[in-house]
Structures are given as C-alpha cells and as structure tokens.
Task: inverse folding
C-alpha cells in the first residue's frame, strides 16, 4: 500500500492504438498526467482526440502499447470495480433488473452481503433522488434517470475512483445542467476521486479541479489547466479559464464546428 | 421476432394505429375483436355442419362437427384420447428438455471458445436446413420403434433452430453491458451467466417458440409413421389407428386436439414473453 500522498492514478506516458485491417493505427501518442486522491480531473479534447481511449485504458479495457497505467501502485490492472465506470450510453443498466436490483447486483458481485447491499443501494439511490423508482425497470426511466442510476451504482461500490465517459453527453441541455450540479455536490461531499471525459469546456470548468487538454492526432497532452478555484460561472477567473481552454482547442481548428460554445 | 432490444426511445404504437393499420373500420370493424372472432368461428362451424349434412359426403371419409364433438367427448371419457395426448406431450417434453439443455451447453461453448463457435456454426448450418423428420429412418435403425427414437428426433428438431437463435442472442449482447460486467470484475463464466444469458433471453424465447413448433410437427409426423408401422403410442398413433378402423370422427378429434395443444402452448409462450422480455422493455409488446 502506498501512503496518502501517492497518486491514486498515474498515467505514465501512455500510447494506445487500434489494429484496423491489420494495420496499427495510433490514437494516443503520449498521455501523461496523474490524479491525486480526492481530485477531479477532466479529460477535455475534440472528438477523435482519444480521451475515451485513455479512460478505457485506465478502466483496464485496453492495454497501452507503450507506457503504463499505475492504479494505486498496480501496473496496468485489468478491469475492476475499484475504478467504477459510468458510460455515456443509456443501455448500461441491465434491463431485466429493477433500478434497485441493478445497484444491489453490483454490490453483491463485489462481495457485499445481501442485507448490507440492499441498505447501501437504497441509500445511494436516495442520494440521486430515485427513492420512488426502486422497483421500476430501466426502460420505464428517462435518459437522465438512467444516468442517475448508473452514477448511484458506481458510487455504491465505493470505488477508489470514478471514471465517467461523457455521462451527460446524450442528455438535453436542461437535464445535463441539473445533473452536473448534482454530481458536483455529491462528489464534493463524498470526496470521490474523479476522472471525467468531456468535450464541453463549461462542464470541464464546472466539475474539475484540473483539466487535461488532449490535442493532435495521434493525441498528446497539450496543457493541464488548473480550474480548482472556479466552482461556478460567477467565480472570478471563470471567463479567463474558459478563454484559455477555448484557445487551446481552437488551435486544433475544431472550434469552427460550433461544438464549443 | 423483433431485434429492437432495449434501444432507447422505442415507442409503443400510439392508440388508434394499434390494430387495424390503414384499413377503414366499417360497421363490422367497429365490433369488438372477441365478438368478431366468435361470429367467424361459429359461421365456420356452421358451414362445416351444413356441408356434411347437405352434400351427402360419405361418413367414411368426412365427419361433421357434431360427430367430432361426440368423438372428442367419448375419447376423453374413455381415456383413450387423454392417454394418447399425455404420451405425446411427455415425449415432446422430454425431447425439448434434452434439446434445451444441449442448446445451452453448445451455445455457451460457442461464445466462449473459438473452436466451439466454428463447430457449432458448421454443424448447425448443415443440419438446420434438413427437415427434422428426415432423420426418422436413422433413428428407427438405431433405436428401433421405441420412445427413444421419437424423443431423439424431437430433441434434434428443437435443438438446431434454438441454437441459431440463442447464439445470435448471446452474440448481440450490447457491448456496453459487457463492459459493465467486466468493470464489476465478472469472469468469463459469470459474465456469461449474469449478463449474456439474460441479454439473450428475447432471442432464446423466440427460438423456443420456433423450436417447440418444429418439435411438435416432428413428433406427430414421426408417430404417424410409427402408427403405420404398428407401434402403440401417442396422438399420431391414435389418428392412424382410427383411420385403420374407419372411425373417421376420431381422426378429426385427434386433429382438433393437436390444434388445441398448439394454440395452448403458443399462449403459454406469449404469457412468458409478456411477463419477462416485454415487461423489461427488451421486446415490443407481442400482440395476442
């Protein structure tokens, strides 16, 4: 075990590529950053910049072709509930289980006894405002509710860190804003460690302590911007940080697509 | 079978366009469904009775509904028809149980190992197009005129359509769900059991419906062949025997029982679907 000062996660000059039609296509050339305990790190970049790829490598779904991912002292660990993932897709809940059943299942397979699993599941679902939905099946829920359940499930297994892959990317603007606020409040309270992939500058500034900007193809870390003091759009420096991130992404030429408001 | 498993935003048909599509509803169309169906059913029975009474068709080749109903009642009260039906259902059940067990083993092997996949793909694509009753002569050669031979052809009839559906279901498990399972630390077998098998349930039930229908046709056909060969047994034998003794109403009664069982089993499978995959939003509501 490492001391409290050792980073929860070290992404040590990781390169990742895909094999496509027999050829090796690099997606990430050099990703290097670390995440300390309790820190909220945002991975920001234009589409195709490999930010989800980096997250999948941290989750253990992909192996780096060079460099290493060090999670709590372990090098390139396989997938595990210590890095609970929340995906963008609404179909990440098991449709044959109820809302409560989905969260209980996650706890049960990670070794929690039945009574404790139920109590903790209810507790976390209540935290996400889903106490009236316990016995519903996922298909009866709206997209926003499904993402809430997925977040409750990820939090309930009490992971070393939360990995979120654009969890609000498929939601309408209003729901997204509300969930961003709730997530910010909850992770502040639970002091969770968070690695969050986004392509929205505002989301990155609102939720993050530091923003790791990925750029280039194959991508590298262009800059790491500290936004820890900026927890609302009215905070002094918010506009400045936003501007800085905007110009970093603008160098990519993708700002003209209108993706970044 | 619909492939629309749990895609977000699939909508139930809005009321009004539900049943009658683009057809214009006349006075007949405005009657409730059950009433329309009852009237049509009664009319068909009436035409049947009318034809037998009026045409003077020989009672040795054709029976009217009244005689068939009497034969049914006699068959039930004497126990002949009940015994035959039970024999057939028992063999169908045994054959299906074996077929389902083999389906689970083969498809799980096929999705967990590459060799299993190759073997299953090849074998099922070779055997599936073969009408299942075609292997009856071989079964008779191997097992004689026995129940084992009948169970064998039934299991074979159920197995291949089911493996095709189930392995399709296992293969089309949403990749996000697989990642969620792996993220929870599930190993290969637990992933198959906890994630892939339930995800394959809509396909598995569709396969079971096809499978039982194949098995049902096969066992009746096989029994008819057996009956002709003089072996005692189930409904196929009952029909063949009745023909032999020129008990034509009994022949029809046997056919009615076969049809009724078919309808009943279809209803059972529809109920199972409604209580599981339809309730979970993994399949659009099956119209009854």
Result:
């Amino acid at each position: 075990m490492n001391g409290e000062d050792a980073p929860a996660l070290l992404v040590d000059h990781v390169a990742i590529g895909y094999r496509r039609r027999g050829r090796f296509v690099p997606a990430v050339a050099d990703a290097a950053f670390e995440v300390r305990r309790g820190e909220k790190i945002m991975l920001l970049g234009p589409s195709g910049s490999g930010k989800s790829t980096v997250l999948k490598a941290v989750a253990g779904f992909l192996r780096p072709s060079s460099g290493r991912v060090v999670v709590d002292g372990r090098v390139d660990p396989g997938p595990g509930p210590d890095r609970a993932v929340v995906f963008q897709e609404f179909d990440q809940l098991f449709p044959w289980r109820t809302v409560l059943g989905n969260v209980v299942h996650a706890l049960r397979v990670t070794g929690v006894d039945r009574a404790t699993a139920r109590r903790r599941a209810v507790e976390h679902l209540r935290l996400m405002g889903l106490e009236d939905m316990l016995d519903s099946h996922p298909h009866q829920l709206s997209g926003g509710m499904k993402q809430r359940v997925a977040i409750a499930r990820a939090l309930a297994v009490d992971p070393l860190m939360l990995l979120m892959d654009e969890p609000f990317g498929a939601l309408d603007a209003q729901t997204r804003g509300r969930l961003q606020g709730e997530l910010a409040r909850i992770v502040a309270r639970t002091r969770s460690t968070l690695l969050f992939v986004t392509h929205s500058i505002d989301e990155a500034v609102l939720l993050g302590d530091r923003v790791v900007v990925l750029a280039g193809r194959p991508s590298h870390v262009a800059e790491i911007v500290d936004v820890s003091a900026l927890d609302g759009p009215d905070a002094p420096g918010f506009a400045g940080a936003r501007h800085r991130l905007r110009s970093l992404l603008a160098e990519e030429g993708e700002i003209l697509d209108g993706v970044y408001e | 079978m619909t492939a629309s498993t749990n895609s977000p935003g699939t909508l139930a048909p809005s009321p009004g366009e539900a049943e009658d599509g683009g057809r214009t509803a006349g006075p007949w169309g405005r009657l409730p469904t059950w009433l329309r169906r009852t009237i049509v059913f009664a009319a068909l029975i009436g035409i049947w009775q009318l034809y037998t009474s009026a045409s003077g068709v020989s009672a040795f080749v054709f029976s009217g509904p009244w005689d068939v109903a009497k034969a049914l009642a006699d068959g039930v009260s004497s126990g002949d028809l009940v015994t035959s039906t039970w024999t057939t259902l028992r063999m169908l059940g045994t054959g299906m149980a074996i077929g389902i067990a083999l389906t689970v083993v083969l498809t799980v092997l096929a999705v967990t190992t590459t060799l299993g996949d190759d073997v299953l793909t090849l074998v099922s694509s070779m055997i599936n197009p073969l009408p299942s009753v075609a292997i009856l002569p071989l079964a008779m050669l191997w097992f004689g005129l026995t129940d084992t031979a009948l169970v064998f052809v039934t299991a074979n009839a159920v197995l291949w359509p089911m493996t095709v559906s189930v392995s399709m279901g296992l293969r089309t498990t949403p990749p996000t769900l697989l990642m969620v399972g792996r993220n929870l630390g599930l190993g290969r077998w637990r992933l198959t059991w906890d994630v892939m098998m339930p995800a394959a349930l809509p396909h598995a039930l569709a396969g079971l419906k096809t499978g039982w229908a194949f098995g049902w046709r096969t066992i009746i056909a096989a029994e008819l062949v057996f009956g002709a060969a003089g072996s005692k047994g189930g409904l196929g034998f009952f029909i063949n025997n009745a023909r032999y003794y020129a008990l034509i109403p009994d022949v029809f009664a046997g056919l009615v029982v076969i049809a009724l069982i078919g309808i009943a089993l279809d209803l059972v499978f529809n109920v199972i679907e409604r209580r599981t995959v339809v309730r979970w939003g993994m399949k659009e509501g099956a119209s009854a």
